[in-house]
Design brief:
The chain has 115 residues and is mostly helical. Helix content is 63%, strand content 0%. α3 crosses α5.
């Protein structure tokens, strides 16, 4: 079975709980619009929003981002897990982060319009 056809969300069963804080901080800092929550404790609303945004990504980009930032794997380790080239991991990371920024900013705009 191809690693891109994972039926269950990758992040729900990741076996790297000690790295979750680092991943949340990295994504928050990459997004830039949620700097106030970067230093705070566990934020359920932000986590749910991030999971919803990740679900909107193509499976390949989602897998790369989860492994790189949630599980804190290196480019080489991620390439090994997904059985692809390191260049693929880098390009999918960049594209996935761009798409994630778009989705999160659209969500922020939509929630601001409702307020």
């Amino acid at each position: 079975m191809s690693p891109w056809r994972t039926p269950a969300p990758c992040w729900s069963g990741c076996s790297c709980p000690s790295q979750r804080t680092n991943w949340a901080r990295r994504v928050v800092l990459v997004n830039g619009s949620r700097e106030e929550s970067a230093g705070s404790g566990f934020d359920v609303e932000a986590r749910l929003e991030m999971e919803a945004a990740l679900r909107e990504l193509p499976p390949r980009q989602r897998a790369v981002l989860v492994l790189r930032f949630y599980c804190d794997l290196s480019v080489e380790q991620t390439a090994t897990v997904l059985r692809c080239a390191t260049g693929t991991v880098k390009s999918q990371s960049a594209r996935g982060l761009d798409k994630l920024r778009e989705v999160l900013s659209a969500n922020d705009s939509a929630s601001a319009a409702r307020s």
